Amino acid sequence: MTSSTTPATDRFPVVGIIGAGQLARMMIQAAIPLGIGVRVLAEHATESAALITPNVDLGSPDDAAALRDFASRCDVVTLDHELVDLDALVAIEEAGGVVRPGATTLRYAKDKLYQRSAFQRAGLPVPDFVDAPTLDAVEAFTARHGWPVVAKSQTGGYDGRGVWVLHDLDEARALFASVADSNVALMLEQWVRIDHEIAVLVARRPGGEFVTYPAVETVQRDGICHEVIAPAPIAPEIAARARDLGEQIAALTGAVGIIATELFLVGDELLINEVATRPHNSGHFTIDGCATSQFANHLRAVLDWPLGSTDLLAPVVVMANLLGEDHASLAPRMRHALLAGAPGVHPHLYGKDVRPGRKIGHVNALGDTLDETRARAAQAAARLTGRTP
Ligand SMILES: Nc1ncnc2c1ncn2[C@@H]1O[C@H](COP(=O)(O)OP(=O)(O)O)[C@@H](O)[C@H]1O
Ligand SMILES: [Mg+2]
Q1: Ligand in closest contact with the CA of 225
Q2: Is the peptide bond before 148 cis (omega within 30 degrees of 0)?
């Protein structure tokens, strides 16, 4: 794609990242020691990754011309989100460009209904669901499964935006009315009584070679991930099954790079919730907690380079997300937070403006026991954000 006369083997490749949020920022951090060049396509110069590199193109991920132009300056194009025009990516692929993961894989991440249907057809365990629900369909579905039910927007949701737990027909009616004027297409699924939320990350190369990270527990509140615990405190047999499902999904979707599979553990049963075909919040613990971070393995995979070990570097690794409070900046509390956890607590800030509830960074803590490590991560996070526990 790059029109340079230098053969690709004689110079380090340039990975283009569509999107310039914190995932792109952490990919850049991982690219530096490997010699990989990175270019980002940002919508605004103030985005998290655009702040740390001069190699920024400004443009929209929905603008086919901007994407084509961006791709022409990169050897491989990857993404830090899935809110991108898939047709434009197909056009880049057809013109000989390399997009990893490709459009056929991204479609799973972009469209929850497509994903659910494909996984169900493949015989994988998913919660029961209905596409494009009407009020009649809600009544028929709740006659089978009871209340509550979960409505989800088929596309565009994240951090619990686009997920509604409905407790009766009035709530369903109100939701349907509120989305009637917008373009939000809904699906409906069975509400499940989740015992643990589990995530599995697989890094996969174009030829199918892959490595799998330890299964982790994600602790969600109001649809937002607050903590990740590695390894997940579940029976080894269940963790092995979770990893196996993640690997099956990586193969089924033809993933290249990191693919994260979110699972619900209900009793002994694992159900697949959703996938993300990129580095994922559930893998931020790998930066300090594993021999190779998810960001390094994502880059290595999309470049078709050998993958690195996913071994844990401590018996327990806990990540705590930093969610904005009312304070305008974390700066006044950084010194205090470092004192609280040192050694073994590692903050990662995203350079984003602080807004209440916004993900502005995370801390990783390494330790020997779950309770102590978790408490240390939580304490450092609370001290940094200024939250009073
Ligand atoms: N069917 C369900 N039953 C119970 N809880 C659910 C269900 N689906 C989602 N949730 C809860 O909502 C969270 C967000 O849902 P998810 O589909 O993963 O949306 P997002 O794209 O915002 O991550 C999940 O992590 C889980 O805590
Ligand atoms: Mg999710």
Answers
A1: 1
A2: yes
Q: How far from chain centre, in Å, is Cα 92?
A: 24
The residue written with tokens 């990989």 in the block is: 36
Indicate the fold that domain 8-99 takes in CATH: Rossmann fold (3.40.50)
Enumerate residues with CB within 5 Å of ligand 2 (an ion): 262
Full-prediction pTM beyond 0.85? yes
Q: Whose CA is nearest to atom 24 of ligand 1?
A: 223
pLDDT digits (tens, 9 = 90+) for 90-114: 999 999 999 999 999 999 999 999 9
In CATH terms, 128-190 corresponds, of 3.20.20.60, 3.30.1490.20, 3.40.50.300, 3.80.10.10, to 3.30.1490.20
For the domain made up of 196-385, the CATH class stated in words is alpha beta
Ligand 1 pocket check for 93: Cβ under 6 Å:
no
Q: Which ligand is nearest to the CA of 161?
A: 1
The residues spanned by each domain of the chain are 8-99, 128-190, 196-385
Beta strands in the chain (DSSP E): 14-18, 37-42, 56-58, 76-79, 129-131, 149-153, 163-166, 186-190, 196-204, 210-212, 216-221, 224-230, 257-266, 269-276, 316-323, 345-349, 359-367
Out of 195, 216, 273, 278, mutate this one to test ligand 1's pocket (max ligand atoms within 8 Å of CB): namely 273
